[in-house]
Every structure is written in C-alpha cells, then in structure tokens.
C-alpha cells in the first residue's frame, strides 16, 4: 500500500503502513514541545560532559572537565572546615581531666555527642545501642563494675581492654576449676549452690553448706570471704544478684567449670586520646558510673 488515507475512526492521516491486513499506522508525530525538551536535554548532557568530570578513561582516571570540579575535594573542604570549628573543643577536652568534664556545662554536650557516636560504632555491637548489655557483655547502665566505675577506671579499661593482648590489659582470669580438674563435678555443684545463696537465691541448703568450705578454699582469695568481689582483680561481687553469664544454677556451674574469660578489645592506638576520653565520659554518663 503506497497511498495515504484518513482513518475513519480517528480522523488522522495514516502513514500507509499496514500490518495483518487491517492494522494501520497513524501519522501522529510527537508534539513539538516534547521534541524541544528532548533536544534541550541532549544539549544539556553534552555541556555537562564538557564542564564536569564525566567519562572514565583507559589510564584508570576520568575526564576532569573544564571546571575541574571534584565532589571528593568539596567533601574534603567541608571535613577540614568542621575539624577547624571543632579544634577548640578538642583542645579543651585534651586539657581537661576526665573527672572534671561533667562539671563543664559548655563542653559536656559536645563530649556526649561525640562519645555517643563512637559508642554506637565501636561498642554498641556488643553492649547494645543503649549499653544494656547481653549474656557475656556487661550492662553499662547499672552500678556493678568488674574493674571500677569511676571515669578514670572506665577510661583505662577502654584503653587497654580485658584479656585483649595489650601489654597493660585487664588480664586476671578465673581458674577453670572443672576443665583443669581442680574440682569434681559434685564439688562444682555444691560451690554453685553456695554462690547462689550469697545473693539470697533459693538453694539446696545442704549443698550450699558443703559449698561454703569449697568457696573458702578456692574462691575467697579473689571474691573475698563474703563474696563482695575485688575490682583490683576484676572479681565480681557475688552478693548483688547481677550475673554476667546468667544466674541460674546451670549458668553458675558452667562459670565455675570453664572460668568463662571473656575478651574486650583495647582501643588505645585505634582511637585518638581525645576520642577515648569522650567515649569514657559517655559510658560513665549512662547511669552506672561512680
């Protein structure tokens, strides 16, 4: 078919193309305004390629554009400006003893904001977003501290870690009374019954009575005769009902048997001194600091 005709349904001229015998193509071009917009975007794209970085090249770089613009450079400038604005705060934090930071109401909001950000990134995965802890990871909101809850003690723990491999790490470890054959199975059970009795938990009275001597002979040197603990050794208080690995009989038996021995990484050398101080101040503020 070579001639054109007017479609009887739409009143639009056809192009002369027919498919399947009766399917005709209408000659209805795109609106001019639409075409002008398309042409404008093409021109804009070409101009953008010319003035801004755009195309990768074969030598592992890209076309710089006549403006020589770099988003990376802009971000670098913004970071530098932010650091310059924060410099006076960092200098003041560095010069302020950690115990005095909470007294400085002008500095404290900056310290808390910075400490919270670092905590969420470095500490939250283990201790929880709000510091509530989990089994094997201490709750930082209560007032029970293995190595001390003062700002200075918290800062030192963060710096050196616990059994972390650092030369000054908090490194006392509870003996593995079961794994190393120091106590028999029934002696471990009796000792666990006595330990539970120290915090007022219901126990087997007879077993707890037998466990008292086992505790005195094997545990009191670190935990104290009354089980109050010793922060210089990282020995927990057994009388307060706060349990790092669980307070059920089976949990306490497991602790006596294996010694547990959790590990906390050290952050000195990984975080700068000012950041460490902000982090320690923030942890102290969570509610359990002393």
UniProtKB/TrEMBL annotation:
Domain of life of the source: Bacteria
Amino acids binding heme c 2: 174, 219, 222-223
Binding site for heme c 1: 123, 126-127, 264
Keyword tags: Cell inner membrane, Cell membrane, Electron transport, Heme, Hydrogen ion transport, Ion transport, Iron, Membrane, Metal-binding, Oxidoreductase, Repeat, Respiratory chain, Transmembrane, Transmembrane helix, Transport
Domain Cytochrome c: 110-199, 206-287
Subcellular location field: Cell inner membrane
Biological process according to GO: oxidative phosphorylation; proton transmembrane transport
Pathway the protein takes part in: Energy metabolism; oxidative phosphorylation
Pfam assignment, any one: Cytochrome_CBB3
Coiled-coil annotated spans: none
Manner of cofactor binding, per the entry note: Binds 2 heme C groups per subunit.
Major localization class: membrane
Transmembrane regions listed in the UniProt entry: 33-55
Any one GO molecular function term: electron transfer activity
Family annotation (InterPro entries): CcoP_N, CcoP_N_sf, Cyt_c-like_dom, Cyt_c-like_dom_sf, Cyt_C_IC, Cyt_c_oxidase_cbb3_su3, Cytochrome_c_Oxidase_Subunit
Entry GO CC: plasma membrane
Listed cofactors: heme c
Similarity section: Belongs to the CcoP / FixP family.
Subunit structure comment from the entry: Component of the cbb3-type cytochrome c oxidase at least composed of FixN, FixO, FixQ and FixP.
Its biological purpose: C-type cytochrome. Part of the cbb3-type cytochrome c oxidase complex. FixP subunit is required for transferring electrons from donor cytochrome c via its heme groups to FixO subunit. From there, electrons are shuttled to the catalytic binuclear center of FixN subunit where oxygen reduction takes place. The complex also functions as a proton pump.
Name the UniProt record assigns to this protein: Cbb3-type cytochrome c oxidase subunit
Source organism: Hyphomicrobium album
């Amino acid at each position: 078919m070579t001639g054109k005709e007017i479609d009887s349904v739409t009143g639009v001229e056809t192009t002369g193309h027919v498919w399947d015998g009766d399917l005709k193509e209408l000659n209805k071009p795109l609106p001019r305004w639409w075409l002008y917009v398309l042409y404008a975007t093409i021109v804009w794209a070409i101009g953008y390629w010319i003035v801004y970085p755009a195309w990768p090249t074969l030598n592992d770089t890209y076309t710089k554009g006549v403006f020589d613009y770099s988003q990376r450079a802009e971000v670098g400038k913004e970071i530098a400006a932010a650091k310059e604005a924060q410099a006076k705060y960092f200098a003041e934090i560095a010069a302020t003893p950690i115990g005095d930071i909470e007294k400085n109401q002008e500095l404290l909001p900056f310290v808390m904001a910075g400490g919270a950000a670092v905590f969420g990134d470095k500490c939250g995965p283990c201790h929880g977003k709000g510091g509530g802890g989990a089994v094997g990871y201490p709750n930082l909101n209560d007032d029970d501290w293995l190595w001390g809850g003062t700002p200075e003690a918290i800062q030192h723990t963060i710096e050196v870690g616990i059994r972390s491999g650092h030369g000054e790490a908090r490194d006392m470890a509870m003996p593995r009374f079961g794994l190393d054959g120091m106590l028999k199975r029934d002696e471990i059970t009796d000792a666990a019954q006595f330990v539970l009795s120290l915090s007022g938990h219901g126990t087997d009275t007879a077993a707890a009575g037998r466990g008292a001597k086992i505790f005195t002979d094997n545990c009191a040197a670190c935990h104290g005769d009354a089980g109050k603990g010793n922060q210089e050794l990282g020995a927990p208080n057994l009388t307060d009902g706060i349990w790092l690995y669980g307070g059920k009989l089976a949990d306490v038996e497991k602790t006596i048997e294996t010694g547990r021995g959790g590990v906390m990484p050290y952050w000195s050398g990984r975080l700068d001194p000012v950041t460490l101080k902000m982090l320690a101040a923030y942890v102290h503020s969570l509610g359990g600091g002393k």
